[in-house]
Request: fold
Amino acid sequence: MPYSKIQDIVISQGILGRIVSVGTVTAYSGYDESKLEISNVSNPKLVEETIFF
Reply:
């Protein structure tokens, strides 16, 4: 998914994932309603901040 099409990022973490800082990052496109899901990401909050800032 091209960076310019990313409209929203959602992070999903279970309880154990929060403890070990692992989760799923899902990027949503606003143009064609597609999504890109990346599982088992270390430090997903940092990934979200890197994409948006």
About this structure: The mean pLDDT is 91.
